[in-house]
């Protein structure tokens, strides 16, 4: 029985060797020892090259018209809105700071809810590519008879009609300078996480590097993003005459965002 089993094992081993053996080629017998030489060549190819460095970002879509912007704001230095329980705004919610951005949310029933706060709603930028991205955020203010304060307490001139503004993105916080009426934040976004892209093949088009169905279905799990918004305060302790002079002004803020492929600065 042992001999028969060993024979079976040897037969299987030989079968494996035959399966792995290379295809046979033509052979020539040579009897001249000085002529027993030969050579052959094989052509090779590069299967394909797929560019896996993909710059792809999703930018916020924001109305250019200030009246429709999330950065639309109202100044109420005398607290008129709070004194009248916001009757002029159909009793909407106000945080009582005197600087009010128009915030919009949607309730459980799908209805739009408007409230007013010193912190604006956020815009979001997302990196859907495979390369890191540099992000530059710029905020600016256009003011006439209203001053721009460098501090939230308006200590430099507590009686002047003034506002305080800051650009925010996560933990990054940059007040608008009273000299330039502008602020800048430079930050970055990491590339999409592993598994967001995969090599695919299709007859006629060949190899491509594309988003996976999983990443498309669950973008928050695969694509880094950042939010940015504005913060504002109104000097409610200023003189009446100062604010009366600014009553007909049309103050304005603007925010711009620029995303570019991150380039590492070489060390000197």
Helix content: 10-25%
Overall mean pLDDT? 89
The CA-CA distance between the termini, in Å, is 78 Å
- What value does the Rg take, in angstroms? 34 Å
What is the number of E strands? 15
Strand content: 25-35%
The helix/strand class is alpha+beta
How would you describe the shape? elongated
The largest β sheet comes out as: 6 strands, mixed
Low-confidence stretches: none
What does this structure look like?
- This protein has 268 residues and is an alpha+beta fold.
- Helix content is 14%, strand content 34%.
- It has helices spanning 2-20, 80-83, 213-217, 219-222, 240-245, and strands at 57-58, 73-75, 93-94, 99-106, 112-117, 123-127, 133-142, 147-148, 162-169, 172-175, 182-189, 197-202, 206-211, 225-234, 252-261.
- The N and C termini lie far apart (78 Å).
Set down the secondary structure blueprint.
Blueprint: H1 2-20, E1 57-58, E2 73-75, H2 80-83, E3 93-94, E4 99-106, E5 112-117, E6 123-127, E7 133-142, E8 147-148, E9 162-169, E10 172-175, E11 182-189, E12 197-202, E13 206-211, H3 213-217, H4 219-222, E14 225-234, H5 240-245, E15 252-261
Parallel strand pairs: 3-5, 8-9
Antiparallel strand pairs: 1-6, 2-4, 4-5, 6-14, 7-11, 7-15, 9-10, 9-14, 12-13
